[in-house]
User: Fold this.
Amino acid sequence: MPELPEVEVTCQGLRPHLLGRSILAIHSSGKSLRQPIPEDLVRTCLCDRPILTVERRAKYVLIRFQGGAVLVIHLGMTGKLGIFPKDAVAAKHDHLVLRLDNEMELRFNDARRFGSVQVWPGDEAEELEQAFLTRQGLEPLSAEFTGENVHQLARQCRLPVKSFLMDSRRISGIGNIYANETLFAAGIHPLCPANTLSLKQWEDVARCAVRILKKAIKAGGSTISDFLGASGQPGYFQLQLAVYGKKGKDCLRCGEEIMKEVIGGRATFFCGKCQAM
DNA sequence: CGGCGCACCTGAGTGC
DNA sequence: TGCACTCAGGTGCGCC
Assistant:
């Protein structure tokens, strides 16, 4: 599901509906996500306080409230955040429903329950955010995401370059789809050990990653099976994918057959000719 | 510390 | 129609 572009599209979709609004009430399914939903903290720290900002960090949605508390949501594999009229019928797997002060609701739907919902109370938010940030890798859409910096990061990492790109503690936001697409665009074999890439190759990787992520955001994200934006709209970037899910198809660049291999437990697609070791 | 395997869940798709 | 099986975009744990 949601990688950086899908989370960014979700944030962009939520923003106009949430800024300045307050939560009046919370309802949860009672089922645990990655952790139990902290219902009491939502009530005591978030309710009846205006929402100040909606931001993305890595693959997390951060919703900041007056008073300093933060609602932190991760979409996991199947999570979706959407805005609905309060009378709209509930969907299967709606696990968190936040009633807003304008007859609308923010709903978190997550079939596989790999998502998470956390609250950083106002008096602990700064400390918790610092700890959170140290666990997140380089932001691909930040000024620090340069070939030089990534080259430095990868210096003593012998993981396959694809696993390196997907390691959220090193680089955040890039999941399986965009790792595959980035390496195809950069012409690099996914099994190359990360520490064997040259500075020039890392510059290519960084440039390709940024271009693809931005293009995907413009297209509204990728809807492979079920991603939907905050207003229920699908994304269209899946129509522009070059290798992901294309096993057996012709490479767009050279016509060779696209290969599929499992790397680090994840399906990996590449062109053996354009992405030679 | 680095790297691997796996668990956490449900649903969609496939083959018999 | 049903059953068994595989696979899925993420993260973080335990283990060597």
Summary: The mean pLDDT of chain A is 94. Strands of chain A lie at 23-28, 51-57, 60-65, 70-74, 79-85, 94-100, 104-110, 116-120, 258-263, 266-271. Residues 104 and 179 of chain A are 36 Å apart (CA to CA). Residues 4-134 of chain A form a domain with the N-terminal domain of MutM-like DNA repair proteins fold (CATH 3.20.190.10).
